[in-house]
Amino acid sequence: GLSRDDIIARLKERLDDARFEHCLRVEKTSRKLAKRFDEDIDRAGLAGLLHDYAKQIPVTEYRQVIQNEGFDQALLAYGRGIWHGMVGVWFIEHEVGITDPLVLQAIERHTTGAPTMTPLDEITFVADFIEPARKLDGEVAARKAAETSLSDATLIELQNTLTYLVSTNKVVYPQTLLTYNALIRQTN
Ligand code: DGI
Ligand code: FE
Ligand code: FE
Ligand code: FE
Question: Where are the transmembrane segments (predicted)?
Fold first, then answer.
C-alpha cells in the first residue's frame, strides 16, 4: 500500500489547497472520534483523509466512469455533490490503490449516509460535518452530540442537510431520504 506521504501527494494532485486542508481536518477529527468510540483509528483516519479525494474531478471524467464502469445511469442526473462519494470510490481505488472495503464504504456513504451504517461509516459522515472549521448552529449541535453519541450526531447532520436541500430548492437523492427515514425509525 501507499505511505501517508504518497497518499497526500495524490490528494494534492486532485484538490485545491482549501479542500486539501479540509481533508486533513477531517482525518484528525475522524481519529479523535475513533478513539472516543473505540473504533479502528487508522482506518477512520484513512477514510477521513481521502473522503473528498474526488470532489474536484472534472464532470467529463465522471460521466465517462458512470457510463462505462457499471454505475446506475440515474446518477447522470446528479452532480459532483452526489458523485464524489458513491462514484468517487472508483477513482480512489484506481488512482490511489485503496482496497479496504470498510474504508471505501465509509467514503462511498459520506454524503448521503445509508439506512444501516457501521460505526466507521458514521465516524466519516460526522467528522466531515463537525471538523473544526464548521461553525454553523447545526454543526455546533452535532459536535456537541458527538461527545456522547455517534448516532445522535448522524441524525442531527441528516436533519440539517435535508432542511438545507429543501430550503434551497435542491433535488434530494433518494438514499439521503432513506437514511433519514431509517434513523427516525430507530429513534422512535
Ligand atoms: O464534500 P463536503 O462539502 O465536505 O460535504 P458532503 O460530502 O457531506 O457534501 C455536502 C453537500 O452535498 C452539501 O452541499 C449538500 C449536498 N448533498 C447532500 N445530500 C444531498 C446533497 N445534494 C443533493 N442534491 N441531494 C442530496 O440528497
Ligand atoms: Fe464530501
Ligand atoms: Fe457530510
Ligand atoms: Fe468533506
Answer: none
- Residues 52 and 19: beta-carbon distance below 8 Å: yes
Distance between Cα 52 and ligand 4 center (Å): 5
Identity of the amino acid at 91: F
176 lines ligand 1 (CB under 6 A): yes
Q: Count structural domains, the chain.
A: 1
Cα 79 to averaged position of ligand 1 atoms, centre (Å): 10
Closest-CA residue, ligand 1 atom 10, reads: 111
DSSP character for 49?
H
**Hunting for cell 482525518 — which residue is that?**
27
> pLDDT tens, 49-90?
999 999 999 999 999 999 999 999 999 999 999 999 999 999
Q: Calculate what percentage of the chain has a pLDDT beyond 90.
A: 97
List the CATH number of the domain containing 157.
1.10.3210.10
Provide the residue range defining the domain that includes 43: 4-187
Lookup: cell for 79: 452532480
